[in-house]
Request: fold
Amino acid sequence: MVRTENDVVRAVYAAKTDPAAADAFVEQYMPFVRSETVKFTRAAIEAGHEDELSVALLAFYEAILHYEQGRGAFFPFAARAIRNRLIDHYRAERRHRGHASLQETGGEDGREFGDTLPDTRDGIADSDLRLASRQEIAAFGAQLAEFGITFSDVADNCPKQDRTLAACRRVLDHARSAPELLDRLVQTRRLPVGELVLGSGVDKKTIERHRKYLVAILLAFTNGYEIIRGHLCQIAPQGGRRTA
Reply:
């Protein structure tokens, strides 16, 4: 059992490069991830907040990858990462689905909407979701690392405008219609920019500008990363709906 701060730091640094160590660390501190999720949603995970738990898991794994000892204790660092990703998640929900954010204020008392939700006790973990999320996060993070990409890189490289988002959707649609491009991406670890330009009609500069995001999106469609697909991307196949 990891107990002291020095033990935690050593465990985090081991998890950065060892998928098995990362898996064990995430499993050990799932109660922390769930607790931070419940603090944000102010409702039990089982009350329809499994999506938020998956977002929090991604943020926790990202915190492992980016933590440096000079940034202070790990768990406050991870808690901030989880909260920031959950805020981004709700903002995306509001933008793309018209839902109100839990972080917006409303009413005469000016309280956040999240403060009006029932503060119910957390129940027993959904072991299947937890296991699937943990394994998928670790596998996808390891595959991204082979391309020199982190979850933070993907988030930073995500399209900010609907027009660019639509262009990235066209790139994804073309790649999915030509599986050999996805195979080549995995085999060569290089984005087939020329073929994507010709097949999608998207400008080369746009593809180059969002290269890391597109690599991640395309990889998410190569190995059945269902959970990752739902929370990593803001695009879906043509005719589908956007996800946060």
Summary: The radius of gyration is 19 Å. The CA atoms of residues 62 and 228 lie 13 Å apart. The mean pLDDT is 75.
